[in-house]
Design goal:
mainly beta; three-stranded antiparallel β-sheet
Length: 95
């Protein structure tokens, strides 16, 4: 579970942003969801928002937890030109 997430200013949009990617951890009650230039974390058991991490590379299209649930993989495809890719990994415990 994320221990402490830095405050991320969520960019306002004219309409609700669709869920492009969603992943659930197999080791903890934790869900990661793609948002506009960020990844948001939710606790499905308590039904609460845990926070977000910034993802300035664009809108995440692939989100996966590692088998241990300790690492989160986030990928965006075709942000600046067709065929370009950006991939980021981060430790879930400390963002």
């Amino acid at each position: 579970m994320p221990e402490k997430l830095a405050a991320v200013k969520l960019t306002p949009t004219s309409r609700p942003f669709p869920v492009l990617a969603l992943a659930a951890s197999s080791r903890a009650p934790l869900i990661a969801s793609a948002a506009y230039e960020s990844v948001r974390f939710f606790d499905p058991a308590a039904q609460e928002n845990l926070g977000a991490i910034a993802f300035p590379e664009g809108e995440p299209q692939v989100i996966r937890f590692s088998r241990s649930g300790a690492i989160l993989l986030v990928q965006v495809v075709g942000r600046y030109r067709m065929g370009s890719q950006s991939c980021t990994t981060s430790r879930v415990a400390n963002g």
